[in-house]
Amino acid sequence: VRKDFGFSNIHETFSKMLIPQHGLGLAAAVLLGFSSKDVSSFAPTNTSPKSFLSRSNPTLLSKIPDQRNNFKRTRLSSMSQEEFDQELMSLSTECALTPEGFGFSSSTSRILECAGRGVGFYRAAGTDQVIDVMEGITKGEADAALVFDGNDLLGLFTETDYIKFSTARARQASTEAESAQFLVSAISDFVTPAENLISLSTQDPASKAIAAMKLSGVRHLVLADKVSDSNRLTPESSIKGVISMQDVMSLVQSDERLSLSSLAKKFPGLNDPMAQMREEIKSNANLMAKNPDTAKKDIIRAGTSVLAGVSLLLFFTQSPLITEHADLVMIGIFILGYIGIIFEEIFEFNKAAIALLMSTGMWVTYADFYNGSNGVASANVLEQLGEQLSEVSEICFFLLAASAIVEVVDAHQGFKVVTNQITTKSKKTLFWTIGFLTFFLSAILNNLTVTIVMVSLLRKLIPEENDRRLFGAMVVVAANAGGVWTPIGDVTTTMLWINNNLSTIPTVTELFLPSVVCLVASLAFLVGQVEEDGSLERSTLPEPSSLALRGQVVFWSGIASLLVVPVFAELTGLPPYLAMLTGLGAMWTLTDIIHLGEEDEDSQRVPAALARLDTSGILFFLGILMSIGVLDKAGLLKALAVFLNENLPSLDIIATVIGIASALIDNVPLVAATMGMYDITEFGTDDKLWQLIALCAGTGGSILIIGSASGVALMGLEKVDFLWYAKKVSVGAAVGYFAGIATYLVQNAVLSGGLMDAVVPQAMASAEVVQSLSGVF
Which of 89, 355, 612, 762 could form a disulfide with 78 if both were Cys (CB 3.0 to 4.6 A apart)? Predict the structure, then answer.
């Protein structure tokens, strides 16, 4: 083999291989990309091929630069599954020139069939030589090869892999013998590994195929009868074929040409293709309006519009109806807003928008109509609004800074320190491991930060979306339980601690066991929904390996930034959000120093991390807490507490019901209202009432996803909806909640020496309350 068998021969090879089947355009794209030496323009991201260099020749690995595309890698890793699907579907909705099932909505199975190339790949064995596989591709109908070891798929070999292979050979082979050695190497050393292949179901549309290739930086997709939620092959997948971008676009363009011809025949009086399209759109819109589902949506939209119009009319006309019943109006707005949030998927309204509108409506009612207001906000109301916004902003800034720190650590693969220790492939074992890890972390960090950290970790550990939702819900339960037994773990415990209702040592010693029981009972109930299916084998966690020094520095600096928050607050007396923002500033400076002069590493800096944050989730959090604040300022929450005090038989039952109420209403204002009801001179520091309120308010928020900051964060991070959580998790969380309360009552009775006298009456009263609330779930 000649030593100069290099770039010119590669061009000739691909001209022969590509032009007869796919036309000059694809060949020209390959040649232009290669001639410009921009190998990265064809380089897959971290979701497609790994290094093309031989695994059996490690000396090559150190000499060829990494050509991964950082932008695409960042784009893919930062997108949620829902955002990914929305981007994929946008092609078919924006290019609706063809009927359903054609054009951009064509199924991938139809694309494969219409390509006329059989299964679309050349089958090769892992031991086949590179030169033989290339010959099989060029002489056959396929432009890619699937490489197998028996029946096990090893990977995919395409023109991109061959270009990289030839580039390595041109750089490394200094003699003809070395060049020949490259060509007779086993093909298995140069394929895109099977675990990194982007795959689609045969039922997925062309729009999804195009967007998947675009976002992943690949030109070929493997088709199978079933794939994972993360578009990967599963052990149960049956491979049906391989399609290329050219296959997809050829069919789409062919369908669109036929569609234009059909429109010309359908509207012979119109010569302008655009006019023909407008008439077709009108016709299709009329047909869609007759669809029952469309009619239901129209009714919802019309009802929402009428309700909004009537509400605005009442506000602007200063209706006496609002003035005389302002408290009921606020409660009504709150209920309607929560209904909109709960049924977000049905109404198709973003929950952040609903929360913001709800808070605005309630504040306008309170400021202009409540308690004899004259239609203009008073100075007192403006002061209250400022106070509430200050309190909520502290939480939002805390959330923003904590999320950014976690993103930066993740961008540097810092969580390898943790993930390297997780080797189990049993989902149930992992379920318990993550549960206890979250429990103890949330005791030293706040439960909100721990939820963010653990959900980020779960995205790498759990490939299946439904499994990840269940694990995420378990994290919420564990984080809320773990935050109860230390003064810095949960915001409500911290409030009671700062107000001297609780002290450190009794809180830790007397609330630890009930918290553990709450966790174990809930997890024991929920673990039954975990199915062992081998899906952890497809996790995106890399094999355990040492972390680079800069990654270790970023990881431990990030952990220190989170751990120092309670210390900073204790020593300075300043609010925790300032400590978290200080930590973010320190991480920002640190990463700027580490990546000084590295223009290709922008994705690992803080600005890129901030860009990846879920802003709508933070605004949703803002709207919810501002809405709760109105109820608190108006005294409605305290009125609820007084009502409970007058109608329930004991303080233990009141604390239990407050915990249940915290599943629906934020526990912070509930605990604040309770602190205002009961005087500390009557119920001293570490009284049973305060400990039970801390336990109930902290763990009761797990019963519904909107009941705690952790749950709200999960809604934003993993798009978990209210109804799914209520169906799958609420009962298990309630089991743990009541088990924790029972444990505390028994423990308190044992410590006080009156077990039977204390427990039996409370158990009977609790049974009555549970029976009266049996309809809730």
Answer: 612
Beta bridge partners of 721: none
Count the helix, strand and coil residues of the chain and give each as a percent rounded to the nearest 5.
70, 5, 25
Report which DSSP code applies to 128: S
pLDDT score recorded for residue 647:
80
Report the DSSP beta bridge partners of residue 123: 146
First to last CA, the chain: 76
Computed on alpha carbons and rounded to an integer, the radius of gyration of the chain in Å comes to 31
Residue 360 neighbours by CB under 8 Å, 6+ apart: none
CB 183 within 8 A of CB 276: no
Rounded distance between C-alpha atoms, residue 571 and residue 66, angstroms: 46
Q: What is the distance between the alpha carbons of residues 121 and 141, in angstroms, rounded to a whole number?
A: 8
67-84 core/surface letters (b: 16 or more CB in 10 A; e: else): bbbbebbbbbbbeeeeeb
Distances in Å between the alpha carbon of 420 and those of 47, 266, 413, 457? 20, 63, 11, 12
Mean pLDDT of residues grouped by 10 in the chain (777 residues)?
A: 38 38 34 33 30 31 33 42 51 54 84 86 88 81 85 85 79 76 80 86 88 84 86 84 89 75 69 65 62 69 75 70 79 84 71 87 85 75 87 80 81 70 78 90 76 80 82 92 83 76 85 94 91 66 65 84 77 82 90 79 77 78 82 79 76 86 74 73 84 91 84 80 88 93 91 61 57 49
- Strands of 199-201's sheet, edge to edge? 199-201, 220-224, 239-244
Report how far residue 138's alpha carbon sits from residue 393's, in angstroms, rounded to the nearest whole number: 63
User: 3-state DSSP call for residue 274?
Assistant: helix
**Alpha carbons 106 and 101: distance in angstroms, whole number:** 5
Quick one: pLDDT at residue 543? 58
Instruction: Kindly report the three-state secondary structure assignment for every residue of 562-577.
Output: HHHHHHHHHHHCCCHH
Three-state DSSP state, 546: coil
Q: For residues 6 and 12, what is the distance between their CA atoms, to the nearest angstrom?
A: 10
In DSSP notation, 625-660 reads HHHHHHHHHTTHHHHHHHHHHHHSS-HHHHHHHHHH
The helix or strand, by DSSP H or E, that contains position 551, with its residue range, turns out to be: helix 549-572
Question: In 238-247, which positions are buried (b, 16+ CB within 10 angstroms) versus exposed (e)?
Answer: ebbbbbbbbb
Amino acid identity for residue 774 in this structure? S
> CB atoms < 10 A from the CB of 290, how many?
8
Q: What is the pLDDT of residue 15?
A: 39
The residue written with tokens 């580039």 in the block is: 167
Contact 482, 511 (CB under 8 A): no
Residues counted in the chain? 777
| Amino acid making up residue 700 | G
HSE of 149, CA atoms in CB hemisphere, 13 A: 12
Note whether 777 and 734 are within 8 A (CB). Answer: yes
- Partnered with residue 244 across adjacent β-strands are 220
CA distance 312 to 361: 10
Cβ count near 460 (within 10 Å): 18
Question: How confident is the model at residue 474, as a pLDDT?
Answer: 93
Query: If residue 51 lies in a helix (H) or strand (E), which one and from where to where?
Result: none
Nearest to 142 by CA among 20, 10, 231: 20
Residues 15-29, buried b or exposed e (16+ Cβ, 10 A)? eebbeebbeeebbeb
* Partners of 193 in the β-ladder: 155
| pLDDT for residue 776 | 44
Give me the pLDDT at residue 759, please.
53
* Whole-angstrom distance, CA of residue 341 vs CA of residue 711: 14
Note if the pTM is more than 0.85.
Answer: no
CB 488 within 8 Å of CB 450: no
On the CB side of 674, CA atoms within 13 Å amount to 32
